[in-house]
């Protein structure tokens, strides 16, 4: 019986593991190696580690956890339930693990635009988060990708980083008169034509080629297409979700299920590595305090 099972070994899960390991708790982390930012060349906006590669950051975290005797299993968790006073976790190899408390730190997955040429530039000159990659794209000719009305907010936001912003709705025309006036007032260009493909070199976007043959010079792209949970364990356990598919938590990362905590992108807050790590730390402290109360004689 573990004190705590943590599912997800990204920044949220590992920082929870660090606090709990340092609190001398018996902890295991399960991770199947798909951190959300694995496409990115750099992890920006984390004080002291700004610009470090995401892999280097996670490798360093794993190394640091060794001295606190936190087990890390490179395995996928297939199911999780609460039964007879314990969380019961099954990995995909059929092994059953039990714990007193459980942390879900399983993160989100981005719904990626279906565009030819996208994959080789994703994480290098195509991004979704201006706080992560806006600085590196400053003053560039920025394309914002969002079908229907999804890209309006992102396009307006990108004016913070560049004067040259164009919103591409890729063949959809749901922008109304007010939207168009707002975008025009803020000097955002709009292109509603369908995109044929993206063209670039060594990961750097150079132009967007439209289906009618027009070629438009662009140097960076930001997209706004939504996210989904990386796995369905939150649903299996009966967590409450927001209308956007994010798990609802309270101040110290508690979910609506007693003993179950959720940290990182999977629950509601700013989606940055430093915030995910902080939420993991909060969950770790809250769980340790809960265990202390249960153990007090
Ligand atoms: C392209 C890109 C670039 C980004 N750049 C930045 C940046 O520069 N700065 C920044 O602060 N943020 C950046 N982000 C956001 C950042 O990636 C997230 O905020 C952060 O990774 C959230 O951490 P997390 O621990 O919640 O989830 P994740 O890092 O996604 O980790 C979740 C882990 O859980 C594992 N997992 C999921 N389900 C299971 C299961 N059933 N069994 C076992 N393991 C499971 C996954 O394999 C994964 O390793 C970027 C995101 C993207 C997509």
Automatic annotation (TrEMBL):
Which Gene3D superfamilies does the annotation name? Answer: FAD/NAD(P)-binding domain
Highest rank taxon of the organism: Bacteria
Key word Cell division present: no
Query: What sequence ranges are listed for the domain FAD/NAD(P)-binding?
Result: 2-280
Keywords, alphabetical: Flavoprotein, Oxidoreductase
- What PANTHER family does the database record attribute to this sequence? THIOREDOXIN REDUCTASE 1-RELATED-RELATED
The molecule here is called NAD(P)/FAD-dependent oxidoreductase
Source species: Pontibacter locisalis
């Amino acid at each position: 019986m573990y004190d705590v099972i943590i599912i997800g070994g990204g920044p949220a899960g590992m920082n929870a593991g660090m606090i709990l390991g340092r609190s001398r708790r018996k902890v295991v982390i399960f991770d199947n190696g798909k951190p959300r930012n694995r496409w990115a060349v750099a992890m920006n906006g984390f004080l002291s580690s700004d610009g470090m590669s995401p892999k280097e950051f996670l490798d360093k975290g794993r190394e640091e956890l060794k001295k606190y005797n936190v087990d890390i299993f490179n395995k996928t968790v297939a199911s999780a339930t609460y039964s007879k006073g314990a969380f019961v976790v099954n990995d995909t190899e059929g092994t059953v693990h039990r714990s007193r408390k459980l942390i879900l730190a399983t993160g989100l997955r981005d719904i990626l635009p279906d565009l030819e040429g996208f994959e080789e530039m994703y994480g290098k000159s195509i991004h979704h988060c201006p706080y992560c990659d806006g600085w590196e794209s400053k003053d560039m000719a920025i394309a914002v990708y969002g079908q229907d009305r999804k890209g309006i907010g992102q396009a307006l936001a990108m004016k913070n980083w560049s004067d040259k912003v164009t919103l591409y709705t890729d063949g959809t025309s749901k922008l109304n008169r007010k939207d168009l006036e707002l975008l025009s007032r803020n000097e955002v260009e709009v292109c509603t034509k369908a995109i044929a493909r993206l063209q670039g070199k060594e990961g750097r976007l150079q132009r967007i080629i439209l289906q009618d043959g027009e070629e438009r010079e662009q140097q960076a792209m930001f997209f706004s297409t939504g996210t989904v949970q990386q796995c369905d364990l939150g649903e299996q356990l009966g967590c409450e979700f927001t209308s956007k598919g994010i798990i609802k938590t309270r101040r110290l990362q508690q979910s609506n299920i007693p003993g179950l905590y959720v940290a990182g992108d999977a629950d509601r807050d700013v989606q940055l590595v430093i915030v995910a790590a902080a939420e993991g730390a909060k969950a770790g402290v809250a769980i340790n305090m809960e265990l202390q109360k249960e153990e007090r004689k």
